[in-house]
Write the structure tokens for this entry.
Amino acid sequence: MAEILKLKSPADFIGKQGNGVISFGSGQPDLAPPKEAFEGIDLKRDLRYGLIQGELKLREALAREYAGSTAENFVITNGASEALDLIFRSWGKGAVPAGRQEKVLLPRPYYYSYPPIVEFAGMIPVYTDLVDGRIDLDDFKKKIKGCRAVLINSPSNPTGRVEAIETLREIEKMTQSLGVYVVSDEVYKDLIYERENYHINGDHVITVNSFSKTYCMCGVRVGYLWSADKKVVEDVCEMKTHTSMNTNLVGQDMAMSAMKAPKDFIAKQQKIWLERRDFIYKGLTELGFDLWKPEGAFYVLPKCKNAREFVTLLYQEFKVITYLGEWFGAPNNIRLSYALDIKQIEEGLSRMKQAMKKVNVI
């Protein structure tokens, strides 16, 4: 395991499982998808090329969930990650004078892929630091000027925090007046414990979502973007034509069928996540960690001294995977996902307690 001594990114841990390993790493729900997701798959039909924009029936089904929308407002993508990648690369491919780069505002801590996605597009990330896990509007107002877009994630990975509706409405108005796009990553919108989701609106808004978290279908890789701006949709489709082409049709069938599941499927999930949230929060605070209590998603971001040493020790000696906060722009923290059952969480916390005897983390 010597290579793990120099942790570089979540890639060091993604996909590692079994052999007694307890992973608080990837945010992959361990719950089963709705049984409806496995109905309606037609391999004879689905092993062909499909529409670049996504199958019409799936886009029509999504349109019914977004007021005033039609199928033309959506592009079906290979998970939310591809949607984000295509959005920013479509902006960064020469739309400004040579030698000048566009800027994108990112709240920090951020999901670890956000800065690379922006940089791969040839754009520059600019950061506004969160206060107690939420956007500081005063700093936001200063940093947003001169940016092409802002990327918001609420509920948040890695903080588990949910932005106040008043803040989201203020950002909605401010960016509209400045002509700045809002890219709203809402993959956890159905995993909010405190209130209903607030969908930011406007022609300058691009919503990104996925079937991975709501319907426990991470590996199927089906996501989508919504935009009222026709040019955004057209530019993304043009780029997708020359990269991944269509999103897999089996996955689109599963996604469309999953949407037919009873509404209480999501409510039952929320109850499970809430129970796990309370359990891990109580357990970590009893161990002495300082952390925010999540209001959504399934992540906690406790403060942690000697984080790199602790994360390495946990994996090498105790077979527990946690993520370095520095990967998320939070160097004095570690991030844990509680997308695993209570018994595993309990055992993982027990091993962490033993590891804490060897490393000073509080």
